[in-house]
Design a protein that fits this description.
The structure is a homodimer of 188-residue chains. Chain A is an all-alpha fold and 188 residues long. The first copy, chain A, is built from 10 helices and no strands.
Chain lengths: 188, 188
């Protein structure tokens, strides 16, 4: 086996999710994952701190992405318009091309209370990252926090629908539709 | 010591929070709490499953309250108008008269990662309860879920401000102001 493995990370993710679904998250060990992926334990730990992080590691890119989207938006845009302008980038960087992974993760996370709590923590950290990005833009604390909750609601509901529909409708389309719906709800 | 203790629950809450703040959540035992409150361990477990539940037990009343508010609202009201009409009842039943408890809980929860995760789980359960209440009203799934996130954002930000200001402004007033602000953010 060569020292460098192409797509090692993706192979480890796929192997882990298959085993989590087949035999349960708790019953799956790191050596089982690496054997299933045809890689070494050493390679696993070069990519992930533990087996739980296979599910959540990609989320760690979110704060930098949000900071980039929010800081690069024209200063004339309102907070929600900044989000609207960033929908394509957000969908492309965080979700598109990862539907199978996200579907499988959704199933695994629902099956384990500890994982569900971990997902809630990750979402809270995402909301904090959005709040900070808007604060850096000069938006006041309350508006930044409310905008973060508002946009997380749109993203969460949209991604849920996208996964539920197995990607039938493009995610950016669903996000724009959901944003308009939440705007209508707020105005009603 | 008589078998029935007036205000046993409140005395246990106060004693527990004092000890959690003084010596930390992890270092505080149930016997210490009951000794501090002048009550028995038996009384403690009549009111709470464990010491963590001292912090969160009151939240369990939320689903029934929300169901009552949403089901009793005139059918002509939009989802957000239902929330608006329920602000006084929500503030009175869940928050008013509990400022000291909520302030102390906020401090304790922030100090312990496990408690912070528990609080996020409780909030997710509250959002689910709101979603169910709107579904029972005949609102579609996506609108119900978005309304739940929208109203949780208003409540969360408002209660945070109310605690931060030490109750200087009445909570229903803050909630109405925050609701108008979020409506303005959504429309912008």
């Amino acid at each position: 086996m060569s020292r460098w493995q192409p797509n090692a990370r993706e192979r480890l993710e796929s192997a882990a999710l298959e085993l989590f679904i087949e035999q349960g998250f708790a019953a799956t060990t790191v050596p089982q994952i690496t054997a299933h992926a045809g890689l070494t334990t050493r390679t696993f730990f070069r990519h992930f701190v533990d087996k739980r992080e296979v599910l959540f590691a990609a989320d760690d890119e979110f704060p930098a992405l949000v900071s980039q989207i929010v800081s690069q938006a024209p200063s004339s845009l309102s907070p929600v318009a900044v989000f609207e302008a960033g929908i394509d980038a957000l969908a492309a960087e965080m979700f598109e091309g990862r539907l199978e992974f996200l579907r499988a993760r959704h199933m695994v996370v629902r099956s384990d209370e500890g994982l569900a709590e971990r997902e809630l923590s990750k979402r809270a950290a995402m909301a904090d990252a959005i709040t900070r990005a808007y604060l850096d833009r000069g938006v006041d604390q309350v508006t930044a926090a409310l905008t973060a909750q508002f946009t997380m609601a749109v993203v969460g509901v949209s991604v849920g629908r996208w996964i539920g529909e197995n990607g039938a409708t493009p995610l950016p389309h669903i996000m724009r539709e959901t944003l308009q719906l939440l705007r209508a709800i707020a105005a009603d």
